[in-house]
């Protein structure tokens, strides 16, 4: 996945996180901001994210469980005398809680160590935070008024859990602080331990949540084991052929490999739809059907292409597209689902300092940007700012940019603070917003 999620500095959410961060640090409490990619939003407290699809491969709108593209919270270092020994240290405090806790919108403090060890019965909101970083995803096919389980994914939730490195702008991956390595026996043991604790807590009346009754596993999962003749035994994967640049066609292939000794005659329903960053789907804008025949151990690829004209009018501001492939075979009741989430990429803004940066000496800043689309865009505005470099935000009204046109402007300023400084630039228009660029500059005395 592309790790490009950044809070808009003008967003109310950014002020909430920065305000709590600043207050806690002013009180002398060590605090840091955490970003969790593919963050689970489990509304019924069973550590399962349920996703529903129709027989065309389209994900159905589900206002309950979802997987957010990313979610952000704070960690604060504190003692926890209310918990057993060893559960102090970093604690999760979520400034934008997704669900009510005991009737109020709040989340935490939840011990990070308790989350890693599956101690979901410890205060506060440890169950919900556990689901954000380590819930399982179960996919369901909805057809004819019935639900059929398609797939259970144990490792798609909670990836690249990150914070800022000390004395550096580099990303510090702290995923191992929240859970054991995906696919390891320890991770599965902790997950099952958490399920058992929830079941015991519910039976003793300890589990509290504003949600539907607790069920560690939906009953419909308890189906008879599949016989060999009921299993398709085909490996499937969606692979991008090129970087998914905004304004260009999306090219990808479906790779199918027959893992059995029998001939396979497959029907594949493909679908593409935009997503909001909270996992909510928009209506499909592209669908296709492929028929693939495979001899034993044979591999084939089916090439697909979604043109810019097909997706341009259907994008959300989050630039996310989910491609799904639902595979079936006439002689087999089982179906296979694979999907891939694509984040469309904007061209970066390039920032150059034209000369040495010295306090109280004139400095020219060059900003290079482009229109990535194959159509003209209007109402283009470039904003540039930098603490110690500009006394106020610079706004440049550019107007229209021709298709795929590359342009540059030069701004003049006088740095007034020394040390490591950062220039931030943002370009928006009537067709896109928030194309960003960053440049670190060392200002000498």
From TrEMBL:
Chief place where the protein resides: cytoplasm
Source organism superkingdom: Eukaryota
Keyword Cytoplasm (UniProt): yes
Record-linked SUPFAM superfamilies: Cysteine proteinases, Transglutaminase, two C-terminal domains
Domain Transglutaminase-like: 10-97
Compartment list: Cytoplasm
Pfam families to which the protein is assigned, alphabetical: Transglut_C, Transglut_core
Entry keyword annotation includes 4Fe-4S: no
Keyword terms, alphabetized: Cytoplasm
Example of a GO cellular component annotation carried by this entry: cytoplasm
GO molecular function: protein-glutamine gamma-glutamyltransferase activity
Family per record: Belongs to the transglutaminase superfamily. Transglutaminase family.
PANTHER family noted in UniProt: PROTEIN-GLUTAMINE GAMMA-GLUTAMYLTRANSFERASE, PROTEIN-GLUTAMINE GAMMA-GLUTAMYLTRANSFERASE 5
Protein name as catalogued: Transglutaminase-like domain-containing protein
Organism: Cnephaeus nilssonii (Northern bat)
Phylogenetic classification of the source organism: Eukaryota, Metazoa, Chordata, Craniata, Vertebrata
